[in-house]
Design a protein that fits this description.
By secondary structure, the chain is an alpha+beta fold. The chain has 2 domains: 130 residues, Jelly Rolls; 108 residues, Homeodomain-like (Arc Repressor Mutant, subunit A, Orthogonal Bundle). The chain is built from 11 helices and 9 strands. A 6-stranded mixed beta sheet has the order 6-3-8-2-1-9, covered by helices on one side. It has a 3-stranded antiparallel beta sheet with strand order 5-4-7, with no helix packed on it. β4 and β5 form a beta hairpin.
Length: 264
């Protein structure tokens, strides 16, 4: 049933999930503002945490949001699954369940073989692609938790337009709050600070544009960065990779973006 070779790269992007299956490259330390699960493809995985602790083997590894870490894969191939932080306790529960159960060889094979045809089939059957991927990676679909209404509105606005030039004071005014109260409430609701969230959503938006054909300066400006230097520094700080390497590595990538349309 599943016949796609592990060397074929796939990127799935939705509002609240990212799944990448393909070459890992050689990332330095990264700090993702999303809950991340790594799975090996055809070899062993090694994840080093901020204190130097290492998890190694043919296992799934969870890394909490905003945790600095480094990843290596003996085969050079990896599955990386990201879930946004709107899910709070559901992620903690899923993390425990995934750690306890560990994906079976069949599930890892399914992820390594996933292609656009599977995503299209799920959509045609009116199944949630996010939920289906949750089940493959975590063994269960994540349930969204309620986020305070004003914070949820700000989050939605920034996700819809990552280039929105809002400082904390702008978002606070939109919510009818003082800047200090807004920043406190935002961190309590989202599990990260406003600045980290803004940096993450802007960097994340790059994924949907890696095959746009724009040069790095054009790409930087389209995402709201002042120039290519700031762009390169910000992306490398978050992903551990240079934007030029990400763009170069996307040439053979099958992409399912927000609207369900692949460049292919």
């Amino acid at each position: 049933m599943l016949c796609m070779p592990p060397s074929s790269a796939l990127l799935y992007i939705s509002t609240e999930r990212v799944l990448y299956r393909g070459a890992l490259g050689k990332p330095r330390e990264r700090k993702l503002a999303a809950s991340a699960w790594y799975l090996p493809v055809g070899g062993e995985l090694s994840v080093t945490g901020p204190t130097g602790d290492v998890v190694r083997g043919r296992v799934a590894v969870h890394v909490s949001a905003s945790t600095p870490h480094q990843v290596e894969a003996s085969s050079g191939q990896v599955v990386c699954y990201l879930a946004e932080m709107d899910f709070g306790a559901a992620i903690d529960e899923a993390r425990g369940a995934a750690t306890a159960r560990q994906p079976s060889p069949a599930e890892i094979t399914a992820l390594a073989s996933l292609d656009l045809a599977h995503l299209q089939a799920w959509q045609a059957d009116r199944r949630s692609i996010d939920a289906e991927l949750d089940r493959l990676v975590l063994g269960q679909a994540l349930a969204r938790r309620e986020v305070e209404g004003r914070i949820a509105d700000v989050v939605q606005r920034v996700r819809c337009d990552p280039t929105l030039a809002w400082q904390a004071a702008d978002a606070a005014a939109h919510c009818g709050l003082s800047p200090s109260r807004f920043m406190h409430l935002f961190k309590a609701e989202m599990g990260m600070g406003w600045r980290d969230f803004r940096a993450w959503t802007r960097a994340r938006a790059m994924l949907a544009r890696v095959q746009s054909g724009s040069n790095l300066t054009q790409l930087a400006l389209s995402l709201g960065y002042p120039d290519a230097t700031h762009f390169s520094h910000a992306i490398r700080q978050i992903t551990g990779l240079r934007p030029s390497d990400i763009v170069a590595g996307s040439r053979e990538l099958s992409v399912w973006n927000e609207s369900g349309v692949s460049p292919d």
